[in-house]
Please model this.
Amino acid sequence: MTTNVQLAHRDADAPFERQPIGHEAARLRAAIADLAPELAARAGEIESARRVPADITDRLGALGLFRTLVPRSHGGLELSVPEVLPLIEALSAADSSVGWVAMIGTGAQLFRTRVSRATFDQIVMDGPDALTVGVGTPAGRGEAIDGGYRVSGRWPFASGCQNARWIAGHFVIHKDGAPVMSDGRPLTRFVVLAAERWRVEETWQASGLTGSGSHHVVLDNVAVRDAETFDLFHGPSCLPGPFASAVTPFIGSLHAAVATGIATAAMADLAAMAGRRQLFAAADLRDTPVFQHEFGRLDAALRAARALLQVQADSYWRLALAGELDGKADFAESLQGSAWINATCSDIVSGCYTLGGSSVVFNASPLQRRLRDIHVARQHAFAQERFYARAGANALGFPPVDPISGQ
Model:
């Protein structure tokens, strides 16, 4: 007889079986499956250090994770986004903070297509397996100077910054001391520089994703060349291929993969403890109709979340291959999907925690950590339910606008 426990593990190992995968994607899946038990065993170490140990990001880099979306012409694996999402999900199931940093490093491969070709070549030549991270909050200020900008700022939530070789930050363009405006909004750009040109302030004391090392990064009056800056949201790609039209719609899918990974692991945690008998109970958890009902309801929600993630990613990849991915309507829909998946997965993990009884309150329980992690992940800007309104306006026939800039 096939049990619910077996089903949970089967689904966790193969979240997107309908999506054909190539040799490199299959190799990475197998390698991450082999690494997962060690990551889970080191969860306490990762959390207490408030960062992912460098040997882990180095091993992920050596596997090729941080060049999965880079073209083969530049030493990359040239995988599709739908092939990459299960890797992020599997890492997030093993350890949420590792999965989060892996997601950031994967997303960085998208924004690097918006830098100048010379800068792209420099980053890749410096080491195609090196981790690049970035912060989307426009917390910096760049005063226009001849040939570039003089940039200062203090950027929060720079996940993985202590292990990164390149760091990017979002800044507002200034000229003669005042923000440069367009259609009533300030113009912005990103700066990307080698990690040694940044200062890391160890500020990350958080309730969840504690091991992600999401500290502040700082630039103090640093002169940068225009070629070291880029426009993520509206700039052209420096390379031909599927990312030439738009990359922002994939951001929501990357964040959602972390959420489904955490929820998948929470379901597996709950299934593993279902043979216990709680205090004053007449039967083991797994044998009670109430537990079976709730487990089935949560499993249905997880299947729905993963199905939306798969369908949306597959759809966007087909549009990207055709050069038709839209940075306005598709981006809004992507963030709508991310919001729903993150909310659904938060409910799943909360449900698992409740069903787990009093034993899950201890720090030794992975369920309490997953509860904290999923709720911190849900607080990210790209998981916020305010994006429902923009997607709803699009569905009602209003002209699409960029969901970030409103233009």
